[in-house]
Amino acid sequence: IDADEAASSSSSQGPLPALPGSSDAGPARPAPVRMPQNRIVQNAANAVVPIAGAPRLPGARPLRPPPPPPAVPRPMITGTNLFSPTENNRLRSPPPGLRMRLQPDAPRVYDAPRVKPFRLNRSNTPNFVYGGTPVQFGKHGEPYLDPNGTLDNPVSGTRTPVGKFLGGGANSKVYSSNSNPRVVKKFMWLDGPGGARAVTDQDAGRAILEDVRVARPNSPFRVVKRIGAPMTIKARQGGQEYNFVLSREENIASEVTNENPGHPKKRLGDPVTVTNAQDRVDARRPRNGRNKLTRAEEMTINLVIRDLNAEGIVWTDHKLANLDVVPDPSAPFGHRVVFFDLDAFRPVRGANRQERLQAARELQQIFDGNTGTSDLASKLSAFEARRYPDGRGSFDYTAFGGRAEVPAYMYTRSANVGRPDYKAFNDQPTDTFVTSLSTFATRAAAGT
C-alpha cells in the first residue's frame, strides 16, 4: 500500500466462509502434490469436440451442448454505489465491449474502459458524518479517522464506532469491524492528489484480476471478497472538509506462532496476527541468516504473476506486503496467493497477445528487480526506447478511462531485493520455468 508514485504521473453481515489457512479452517492437512498444467501457454477458447469412435445408437441424434445463458450486461460502476453489492463481487459478466480480449490477434487488452472513473459528488448527502475526536494525520500528511471517533448516520441518527486501527499506507487505512470480526473497514481519502484516482485504480484492479481468473481459472490465486456497496464519509474540522469512501472487505488475518528470536514486537512462541506475506516472513525462524518464504510459496507467487503477464498485465507494485500466500491443499503446490491491495495492475501495449506477453514479462522483471528510483528509470527508459520508439510509453490506460484517471504506475524501491528464490524463478525463460514446476512436483512426490 505504501508505495511511491512515479514522477511521470501528472448492515450487519453474517459470517464469511472459513478461509484457507485461517484458524477457522481446522488443522492443516498435508498438501497433495499435483502435476501442474502448463498455464503459461493456454488456448484462447475451450471448444466442445466429438469423441472419435464413440458408439451411437441406431437413429440417435448427435448430442449438442446446451447454449450458454445470455450474459446480463452489467453497467459500469460509478458514484456512491461504486462497487457491486454482491458479496464476492466477481464482475464476471461485463458487457462484451468491456471484456478482456483473449483472441491471439487482439490489438489491445481492453477496447473500452473496464470501469468508469470515480467522481465524488460533493453536493450529495454522505452516508455518514464523522464525529467525536479530531481527524488525525499520517506520516505522508494524509488525514485519517481516529479510532475513538464515530460514524453518524445523518438520516437515522445512529452512531457506529470507527473501529480499531489496524494499519495502512498513504491512500487507505484499515480498521476492525465491531459488528463482525470477519470483516474489516477500509477508508480511502478522496481529497488528496491520489484520492479519486486511487479508488479508480483499485476498482479497475479488482476487475482486471477477475478477468484473469476467467481466462485462467486454474491459476492459484483469489481476490479478497468485498461485502456490500461502499459508503461516503464526510468530516469537518476547523473549517476544513475531509471526504472518504468506506468499503467493507473480508478480514484475511490469521494467526501464526513467532519463531523469530529477532522479531521486533513478539517473543518466541508468542502468537502473531498476519495479514500479508511479509508478516509471515517476519515471524519465521531465520535460515542461512535470512527470514524468507519457502520455495513452494515463491514458486506459487511467480506462477501467478506469470499468468498475469500472459494476459498482458504487469503488477508494478508487487511486494510481499501487498499480497498474502496461504496454505491451500487444492492448489498445485499447496499454496494460493490472495490479492488484497488492488492497485498498480497495468495492461501493456502491443499489436497482439504474443507481443504483450513478451513486453509484460520483461517489464515485470524490470519492476520486480528495481534497486532504486534511478535504476528503475534507467532500465525503463532503455526498454521503452527499444520496444516503444513512438514515445507513447509501455502501458495502455484504456481500461481506466484514460491516462489521467490513474497514476502512470506505482512501485516500491528495492521491494524484492531480499528474495533470491523468487528472483531465480522470475529470471527463468518460460520453458525453463515449466521444467522447474515439473521437477519440483516430482521431487515433492518422492519426498526429496
Question: In words, what does this structure look like?
Answer:
It is a single chain. By secondary structure, the protein is an alpha+beta fold. It has seven helices and 19 strands. The strands form six sheets. An eight-stranded mixed β-sheet has the order 6-5-2-11-12-9-8-7, with helices on one face. Residues 1-63 and 69-92 have low confidence and may be disordered.
By DSSP, the count of extended strands is 19
Sketch the major β-sheet.
Answer: 8 strands, mixed
Radius of gyration: 23 Å
> Low-confidence parts, pLDDT < 50 over ≥5 residues?
1-63, 69-92
Give the CA-based shape: globular
Give the N-terminus to C-terminus distance in angstroms: 38 Å
Class by SSE composition: alpha+beta
Count of helix runs: 7
Helix content estimate? 10-25%
> Quick check: average pLDDT?
81
Kindly estimate the percentage of residues that lie in beta strands according to DSSP.
15-25%
Q: How would you spell out the order of helices and strands?
A: EEEEEEEEEHEEEEEHHEEEEHHEHH
Largest sheet strand order? 6-5-2-11-12-9-8-7
Task: Write out key terms for the chains shown.
448 residues, alpha+beta, eight-stranded mixed sheet, three-stranded mixed sheet, 7 helices, 19 strands, 19% strand, disordered N terminus
Concise description?
Helices cover 22% and strands 19% of the residues.
